[in-house]
Amino acid sequence: MQFKRLKIVEQIIIISLIGVLFPSVISWFVINNVSQHSLRRELGYSAQIIAKIIENNISSILNSDNNRLDEIIISLKHIPSDNQKNLYLQDLSINSEIFKDFEIIRPSENPEFNFDKDIIYNSETEQLWLIKKIHDDKYLKAQVNTKLIKDNIFSNIQDETARRVYIVDMTGKLVFAHNFDEQDFQKSIKQLPVNLVNNIVTRFETIKNQPRVYLKMDNIGLIVIVNTTKELTQSTINKARLKILAAFLIAAAVTLFLTLLYSYYLYFNIRQLFKGIIAVSRGNYKKTITPLTNIFTPREIIFLSEEFNGMINEINVSYKKLKEKNKELKQLDSFRSNLVDTVSHELRTPLTSIRGYTSRLLRKDIEIDEETKHKSLLIIKQQSERLSRMIEDLLVIPDIEGAKLNINFERVNLLNAIENSIYSVKNIETREIENNITSDFPDIYADKDRLEQVIINLLGNANKYAYPDTPIVIKAKCEKEKAVIKVINQADYIDKQVLNTLFDKFIRIDDKTTRTTRGTGLGLYIVKGLVEAMNGSVHLKSTADNVFSVKIVLPLYKEVSDEN
């Protein structure tokens, strides 16, 4: 079975779950356990504090009552008769909030009382009596208002259900109770140790999370028992447990959210890099990546993105240069093919003529008259000049393409240059050429030989494509200190799209299959290159009325000399 590799985002999620949830669960158990122990101790401490508070309350109340009884006994000693004493005590019973009843008793008449103690409690009647000695055979017995004492004893216990407090005498009889429960009371009495420690709060718990304490008040013969209820334990520990759990859940949720958010941004940026690499592998060298940049974006991602985009830009530039070089190679290959085709086609005719007439003149088996010799030599001369012009055209192309033309600027008489060009063209073929340039036309600033080569090419081109028996017209004028020369002939209309391509190399109006004229297709290309090298411009125009014109704009000599 082949192992399936997980994606980055899947791995991050799994690691996050293991790295966040697992430690969080363990930490929750540990902290919950520590918290439970701490709360258990706190419940025990609070039970001890309550027991101590109740002891202080009882002591304070009894001390106050004893002081009051001392005052009453002093007053009784100053009352002479028993009748008056009884009236005094009755009056105190009516007006006192603390004591309900007063009685003077003798030990001999009340053997049931233990006169060695200051407190007497009757569990059957739930009556509490304080005993105070008047003199050797008489004691003052005062019944205490138990409800008032109970309220004062338990006044500091705020929560009515949080604790169960029992105050019992040394025999285990209940004196006072707070939040009394019979079953709990009986269980507490049974679980009390046999030997009680005097005046020290002591724990005697039997249930783990419900601490119980007792306090034996030896001086007054009471025992305070403080029990922790199950409800208090559950509410305290469970609330703390829920708070801890909620805190851990919130922390885990926030951590997971931030982790997932970080994972999303990281995955998105890595995905961008992944898409960019795929695009490059498929030949798309323009695909750049734009990462999400925020606090979650690592510096390495930004660095990789910038480096990738820089690499893509360099590849794209190199690819464009390579395409241009390939295009140039194709053009060179096309140029080579056209050159071979043109040279093989165009040079063959003049060479054949030269070879044929030369062989004829060299024959000794026939008589050749002078007129025939002259015609043959004239044809050889014309074909040689044609061959020479074609070779010159071919040789000037590299200089034009490499911008290495050697231009000798000088003052040129336009009429003389055009007449020389017309003479050269008339030696090739006879056609009417109308030269409308006057002798007073201003001189121009150009290369005389190059200018004549331009005019010869234009006249030759016009001669090839003009209608039979139609003239070629040459005229010129001055416009804004420029010489505007036009060569006009009548020929078929040429569409603008075709017209714009005539300045390219080896472009001819008639293709190889319909070719009726001679030529290399380099005439207008050379014209444009030479004219621009002489700081001029050339324009073609073909109208619907079958007029074709070439306009050449060259600087006048005056303009150039003034600028210099």
Question: How would you describe this structure to a colleague?
Answer:
- The structure is a single chain.
- By secondary structure, this protein is α+β, with helices and mostly antiparallel strands.
- It has four domains: 8-228, no CATH class; 235-325; 347-404, no CATH class; 407-563, Histidine kinase-like ATPase, C-terminal domain (Heat Shock Protein 90, 2-Layer Sandwich), CATH 3.30.565.
- It is 54% helix and 17% strand.
- It is built from 13 helices and 16 strands.
- A five-stranded antiparallel beta sheet has the order 6-5-9-8-7.
- Helix 1 (8-77) packs antiparallel against helix 5 (230-281) and helix 9 (414-426) crosses helix 10 (448-465).
- The longest helix has 70 residues, at 8-77.
- It starts with 7 loop residues before the first helix and ends with a helix.
Task: Please name the defining characteristics of this protein.
564 residues; alpha+beta; 4 domains; five-stranded mixed beta sheet; 17% strand; rod-shaped
Short description:
By secondary structure, the protein is of the alpha+beta class. The chain contains 13 helices and 16 strands.
SSE topology string: HHEEEEHEEHEEEHHHHEHEEHEEHHEEH
Mean pLDDT: 78
Uncertain residue segments: 511-517, 559-564
Name the overall outline. Answer: rod-shaped
The termini sit apart by 89 Å
Q: Roughly how many Å is the radius of gyration?
A: 65 Å
Tally of alpha and pi helices: 13
In terms of quaternary structure, what is this? single chain
Number of strands: 16
Helix fraction by DSSP (H/I, runs of at least 4): 40-55%
Number of domains: 4
Kindly report the spatial arrangement of strands forming the biggest sheet.
Answer: 6-5-9-8-7
- In what range is the share of β-strand residues? 15-25%
Largest sheet: 5 strands, antiparallel
Which class best fits the helix and strand makeup? alpha+beta
